[in-house]
Amino acid sequence: MVVRVSVVERILSANDRLAEANRARLDAAGVFAVNLMASPGAGKTSLILRTVRALKDRWRIAVLEGDLASTLDADRVAAEGVLSVQITTGGECHLDAAMVQSGIEQLPLEEVDLLLVENVGNLVCPAEFRLGVHRNILIASVPEGDDKPYKYPPMYQGVDAVVLNKIDVLSAFDFNLDYFRRGVEALNPGVAFFPLSCKTGEGLDAWLEWLEGGIRSRE
């Protein structure tokens, strides 16, 4: 009898072991870590900047910035006065546990309460790779359309919260909020849902309260 294990299964299995090691390291240091995923332009960096500005006087924050090549987002975050580490994937369309491991090794974890991980902009690959964080967040945006949960179900099934960004432009787009929410709920019943605008600040308080609850749970 020949047992065949696919390459993909071996890669994911090895990744999961590293993710468990990352989680153990974060837990030992009392760090609450979240993974922010979205398509390009949905507002990952904007949400990080808003979050940093609102919480940096209360909590010690660090950011891991995953990107294909540039350091633009990491530079914007560092300008806010928080620790920022750039993870350049060299063309890979997602972060994996090994990349996150290399990033956290560059951080003084004992001086961090909240670790924000910005994944590479993509609605396919990031869903498959565990990183060792405590919460996975998916950021959607109004201009992308209300059909994304129906087109990319794996991304919505495994997350702990969905943020709908850019609600300040709802009236300018043919976006059915009820249709979007039904799609999300069908895939992930009861998932935390935060409609907000990083531009105007509308809805941010609920997001920040939820995030701070996670930080306090690590104390």
**Morphology:** globular
With helices defined by DSSP (H or I, 4 residues minimum), what is the helix count? 8
Helix-strand pattern, N to C? HEHEHEHEEHHEHEH
- By CATH, the architecture is named 3-Layer(aba) Sandwich
CATH superfamily: P-loop containing nucleotide triphosphate hydrolases
* Major sheet description: 7 strands, parallel
Short description:
It contains eight helices and seven strands, in the order H-E-H-E-H-E-H-E-E-H-H-E-H-E-H. The chain is α/β, with parallel strands linked by helices.
Q: Secondary-structure blueprint of this entry?
A:
Blueprint: H1 7-29, E1 32-38, H2 44-55, E2 61-67, H3 72-78, E3 83-88, H4 97-104, E4 114-118, E5 135-141, H5 148-151, H6 153-157, E6 161-165, H7 177-187, E7 192-195, H8 204-217
Parallel strand pairs: 1-4, 1-5, 2-3, 2-4, 5-6, 6-7
Brief descriptors of the model:
219 residues; alpha/beta; Rossmann fold; 8 helices
Write structural notes for this entry:
The protein has 8 helices and 7 strands. The longest helix is centred in the N-terminal third of the chain and has 23 residues, at 7-29. The protein has one domain (7-217): P-loop containing nucleotide triphosphate hydrolases (Rossmann fold), CATH 3.40.50.300. It is 38% helix and 19% strand. It has 219 residues and is an alpha/beta fold. The termini are far apart. The protein has a 7-stranded parallel beta sheet, sandwiched between helices.
